[in-house]
Each structure stands twice: as C-alpha cells, then as structure tokens.
Amino acid sequence: MTSALHAEGLTKRYGRRTALSGCTLDIPAGHVAGLVGPNGAGKSTLLQLACGLLDPTAGRIDVLGRKPVSGSPRVGFVAQDTPVYAGLTVA
C-alpha cells in the first residue's frame, strides 16, 4: 500500500533560519493524521512542502507515491491566514 505522505530527513531552511529540521514521517493511505505543535514548529511548512509550494533544502518527501508538484489536482492546502478573493465562491 502506498503511503499518503512519506518524508525522510525533510529539512527546510530560509537562509540561516531553519523552519523544519530532519522530519521523518509516514502516514499510511486511508488514515487521518493531525499536526499539533506550537507556533513556529513547522506544521505549515510541512504542508507547503507536501503540496509542492516549497522545495526542501534537504531530505525527501513523497505524496501518494510521487514527488509533490505545485498545482497538482491531487493535493490542496489552504492556510488560515492566506487571503482569498472575496468574489471567489464554490459555484
């Protein structure tokens, strides 16, 4: 069975600042997982890496057996602090 999300040694740095360090994680397909942690723990960074919005500095990540690609119709992420167009509706 393919993992929904598999990460090994995943790291993301912004210059000298490390947002995520050495994350190793495996979420099996068909399971639900929650990310819990304080501000700055790397939760949003992990989700942005999983959606292909960011590229890792080190390590690797696979989503549904493939490298994440921005714009993929298979995975989406909407952050709570991301502005959305007021006129955009589900319809």
| Number of H- or I-type helical stretches | 1
- Helix content bin: under 10%
Report the major sheet: 3 strands, antiparallel
Topology order in helix (H) and strand (E) letters: EEHE
Q: Return the CATH architecture of the domain at 3-63.
A: 3-Layer(aba) Sandwich
* Overall radius of gyration: 14 Å
**Structural class label:** mainly beta
Q: For the record, what is the CATH homologous superfamily label of the domain at 3-63? A: P-loop containing nucleotide triphosphate hydrolases
- The N- and C-terminal alpha carbons lie at a distance of 35 Å
Approximate strand percentage: 25-35%
Gross morphology: globular
Protein name: ABC transporter domain-containing protein
Domain ABC transporter: 21-90
Keywords: Transport
Family: Belongs to the ABC transporter superfamily.
Write a brief caption for the model:
Helix content is 9%, strand content 33%.
Topology summary:
Blueprint: E1 3-14, E2 17-28, H1 43-50, E3 58-63
Antiparallel strand pairs: 1-2, 1-3
